Amino acid sequence: MNPTMSDLIKRAADDILEARHAIALTGAGISTESGIPDFRGPDGIWTKNPELEQKAYEAYGDFRVNPKKWWIDQLEGPVNILEEWGKAQPNAGHHALADLEKSNQLKRVLTQNIDNLHQQAGSQNVIDYHGNIFKLRCLNCNSRSSIEAFDLNQMKTTNQLPPLCKSCGDPLKPDVVYFGEPIPVDAASESEEEALKCDLMMVCGTSALVYPFAGLPIIAAGRQRSTLESYLTSGHVPTKSAVIFEINDEPTPLTNEGISHYLIQGKTGEIIPQIVAAVKAGI
Ligand code: NAD
Question: Whose CA is nearest to atom 9 of ligand 1?
Fold first, then answer.
């Protein structure tokens, strides 16, 4: 007999209660209930408009070739993503993860999202794996600045684009990782360490198609580095495989390939709060 939703919620809560180092991985799906569309879900930005996906593949190369022109094109473009996403508020799923962290049952959130909603909900230990739309980052020295420190429209009018790094003088780009762009070294190494040392990974609202992020559950499942190596680098001896479960509207390659141990199918904004309530009832 298939487990019921309440069986699965209880199973997830018990797994979290048993874990010593639980982490959450999140993707665009956790923010759809805040009004930010995902890319590849049925109402996704790219599902509806494949041309935008093509542009996303070109963005990094275009920036490297001519950062000034790139910034002008962005500021003159039809979509002001900062204005649109800046109004979004965290939903019950973000709040529940922040709550779980406060009660010390969740050590870290690794997110692919660039929308800052985990931080807005109160999560303190967040790795912005693909960056944060409210920051600019230097590709040379990796230093980050708040986007509010620059009046980009004024800089365009006075011919001062692109914004420059205050540490090394190189052009700044939005702190958002585009296709073909390396993951910032700090986010990549800290995430890999987390995947090596966690004993529970809850994977929420990601299609698990974008690598290297989608490789993190595979690391946690297989511990591809030796336990000795991870002990030397992180001081933590991991179990062979972390418990991995997904919360998603639909199955993913992690489900289909048996990387995750179980899928709780449904909305993150409904399911995560139920799991957290069950954890709190069991403490
Ligand atoms: P994706 O669009 O590839 O997949 C989203 C997944 O979430 C799908 O499997 C979908 O079925 C599921 N989903 C959608 N709404 C859900 C809900 N309410 N509850 C449960 N599941 C839900 O997203 P991805 O895997 O994160 O990869 C896309 C890339 O796009 C990421 O790198 C991310 O940086 C970027 N992105 C970010 C945002 C954001 O910051 N909010 C939004 C769009 C895209």
Answer: 207
> CB of 94 closer than 6 A to ligand 1?
no
Which atom of ligand 1 lies closest to the CA of 130? 34
Residue whose pair of structure tokens reads 């920036």 in the numeric block: 63
Specify which residues 260 forms β-bridges with.
none
If pLDDT is split at 50, 70 and 90, which confidence band does 225 have?
Answer: very low
Residues 6+ apart with CB under 8 A from 97: 24, 26, 106, 109, 118, 121, 123, 204, 272, 276
Reported as a single tens digit per residue, the pLDDT across 150-174 is 999 999 999 999 999 999 999 999 9
Domain that includes residue 245, residue range: 1-36+89-132+183-283
Query: How many angstroms is it from 281 CA to the middle of ligand 1?
Result: 30
Residue nearest to atom 18 of ligand 1 (CA): 267
pTM for this entry: 0.91
Give the Å distance between the CA of 220 and the centre of ligand 1.
Answer: 21
Rounded Cα gap, residues 202 and 225, in angstroms: 21
- Domain end marker among 121, 155, 175: 175
Name the domain count of the chain.
2
Residues 139 and 120 in one domain: no
175 CB under 6 A from ligand 1?
Answer: no
Together in a domain, 76 and 95:
no
